[in-house]
Amino acid sequence: MRIQIEYNDAGDIKSVAGAGPSVSTGRIARANHKIAVLDTEEVRHDHDFDGLRRVVETYRVTGHPHQPSLTRK
């Protein structure tokens, strides 16, 4: 599923949200953070809060800012 990931310059994930059918939801990153929209198999549907939590606990963002991807910690 496609999700939005807010992360800092070190690649640490600060928050996640389901992107739903629309990629552009108007979400604005906090200062010194970026937002990436990525696909992951960890999240099964919009209300899979356990899957979203697993992404925060298990992954970090690498290859940012031009080609971000999820990498296991």
Overview of the molecule:
- The chain is mainly beta and 73 residues long.
- It is built from 1 helix and 5 strands, in the order E-E-E-H-E-E.
- It has one helix at residues 49-58; strands at 2-8, 13-18, 33-39, 59-62, 69-72.
- Strands 2-1-3 form a 3-stranded antiparallel beta sheet, with helices on one face. A two-stranded antiparallel ribbon has the order 4-5.
- A hairpin with a 4-residue loop joins strand 1 (2-8) and strand 2 (13-18).
- The longest helix has 10 residues, at 49-58.
- The two termini are 20 Å apart.
- 14% of the residues are buried.
- The model has no long low-confidence stretch (mean pLDDT 88).
Which keywords apply here?
mainly beta, 14% helix, two-stranded antiparallel ribbon, 73 residues, globular, single chain, 1 helix
Secondary structure topology:
Layout: E1 2-8, E2 13-18, E3 33-39, H1 49-58, E4 59-62, E5 69-72
Antiparallel strand pairs: 1-2, 1-3, 4-5
Low-confidence stretches: none
Structural class by SSE content: mainly beta
Q: In percent terms, what proportion of residues is strand?
A: 35-45%
Radius of gyration, CA atoms, in whole angstroms: 11 Å
Distance between the ends = 20 Å
Helix proportion of residues, in percent? Answer: 10-25%
SS field, number of helical segments: 1
Shape: globular
Tally the beta strands. Answer: 5
Mean pLDDT, nearest integer?
88
Strand order of the largest sheet: 2-1-3
What's the helix-strand series? EEEHEE
Main sheet properties: 3 strands, antiparallel
